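Figure 2 data, in text form.
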Amino acid sequence: MATDKEQVQEFLSIAKESVDEYVAGIDFAALSAAKQLILDAEAKGGRLHVTGIGKPGHVSGYAASLFSSTGTPTYELHGTECVHGSAGQVVPGDVVIAIGPEGGYAEKEIAYATQHLSWCRTVSLGPRILRAETASLAALSIIMYERGFK
């Protein structure tokens, strides 16, 4: 049986490998566009919301907390509560980050959103899809990088 130290080292090695793979596949032009979209919305009084359902919902709460703690006030938009009215917290000029399920959104889901929600623009950060367990670490790393934290 592996020692606690060995288990932690193995976990961190797997997490590092996953983050390194993700970073290698990031579309930095899309990342910059997403960053600018958020900054432009903030400058005009818009707010940032993060949402997801299932494990991505847990990640969305964590992401909202990370954005808020690094200077961008962010609200968690509970995915399943939206059908009961909480989507009303989103107003024109706000930005919503929708974290997709493992495997990503289906093409028909993206097409529906862009066709029926006139304000919807899709931004992808690249072809890599992270597991919920490593997405938070990757998001934190990207946010800290973009904010200039070392």
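Caption note: The chain has a mean pLDDT of 78.
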